[in-house]
Amino acid sequence: MQDLVLSGVKPTSIPHLGNYIGALKYWVELQHTYRCAFMIADLHAITVPQNPAELRARTIDTAAMYFAVGILPERCFVFVQSEVPQHAELGWILGTIAKMGEMERMTQFKDKSAKEGRERSGIGLFTYPALMAADILMYDTTAVPVGEDQLQHLELTRTLAQRFNTHFGPTFNVPEALIQKHGARIMSLAHPDRKMSKSDVAKNGTIFLDDDTDTIRHKISRAVTDSGSTITFDPIERPALANLMTIYHHMTGKTMPEIEQLFAGKGFGDFKKELAEVTINHLGPIRHRLLEFRKDPSELMTLLNKGRDQAQKLAEQKMTLVRDRVGLGRA
Ligand code: TYM
After folding, report:
1. Residue 1: what pLDDT?
2. Choosing a second label site near 318 at 20 to 30 A (CA), which of 3, 122, 190, 242?
3. In angstroms, rounded to a whole number, what is the distance separating the alpha carbons of residues 280 and 277?
4. 214 contact partners, CB below 8 Å, separation of at least 6
């Protein structure tokens, strides 16, 4: 079996720098080694309320962003999750073998349901990991590059694959998570104790990939730093600076010792100014390509049609086997 990488982002906003460093940028590297499938997880997006017109626009924008960051259509297929209905079907089936207890232990569910109150949270938020497992298991995925926050869902995916295989016979490959050394958890610029997220209430905490130059400069200039004045990498004692240095590392490719050397004798002010410039330089071309896709989405639509067709073909092959194993439908 040829190795396959699969991953996805929810189109709940334009992807942010955390999504980029934790996921998208990593995907671009991996595509040279693996066959790849990348989805826009719109079915997962609706586990919290969405405005329909905005959701559709962000689904297209998120797809455009995949190609804007450098995903190559000749190496990867990119598709919209809801356009391959087999995902929802397999999500349902996996939901029937998942246990209440293991779903209740998912920290993402605990965090998100705490916001609305558990009683008022949608069931989709609860069954989210079963659908995510379906996305992954559908294509015999071998490796799943994700940020740290998704590791628990990956563990559950492995459990469900093994459980299904034991009950019904060998059907799914058991996938591995792929996590980067630095950047698997980018923190908010405003609250370095919280991860950077789409829903951060602090407006300056999250850099979105379509932020313009002035906005990026402003957000980085406002970034919280720790006490002390030297630029040294110490995630335990100085987590805010370590976060900014991780961003610098990803924007330039420089190692932590190289960054420390570059800023020896300099202070936070110099470092933040330089960080803003390298971020603007790195994200500028990505934003430019996104705007091009927005102006003329025809090429994007062709790529998404192709991705959908390929995903549907593979998904139907897998579902034929799954339905047979479970005993669904007529012989
Ligand atoms: P989403 O949209 O919440 O996150 C997309 C990816 O970005 C990573 N990420 C981060 N990485 C580093 N620092 C951060 N602050 C940060 N915030 C987010 C996430 O870990 C993720 O890799 N459930 C998935 C979507 C999904 C999926 C899948 C992923 C649906 N089906 C199948 C892999 C395979 C999610 O968290 O989306």
Report:
1. 56
2. 122
3. 5
4. none
Name the CATH superfamily, with its identifier, for domain 213-292: Tyrosyl-Transfer RNA Synthetase (1.10.240.10)
* Domain chopping of the chain, boundaries: 4-184+297-326, 213-292
Atom of ligand 1 nearest to the CA of 131: 31
**Looking at residue 187, what DSSP letter applies?**
B
Encode pLDDT of 71-89 as tens digits: 999 999 999 999 999 999 9
250 CB near ligand 1 (under 6 Å): no
Which amino acid residue places its CA nearest to atom 20 of ligand 1?
A: 147
Q: What is the reported pLDDT for 210?
A: 94
Q: What is the dihedral sign for C-alpha 204, 207, 211, 217?
A: positive
- 198 assigned to active site: yes
* Integer Cα distance of 286 and 55 in angstroms: 21
Ligand 1 centroid, distance to 266 Cα (angstroms): 35
8 lines ligand 1 (CB under 6 A): yes
CATH number of 4-184+297-326: 3.40.50.620
Residue whose CA is at the smallest distance from ligand 1 atom 33 = 7
Which residue has a Cα nearest atom 16 of ligand 1? 18
Q: Is 112 a catalytic residue?
A: yes
Q: How far apart are CA 31 and CA 187, in angstroms?
A: 26
Closest approach atom of ligand 1 to CA 6: 34
pLDDT digits (tens, 9 = 90+) for 274-301: 999 999 999 999 999 999 999 999 999 9
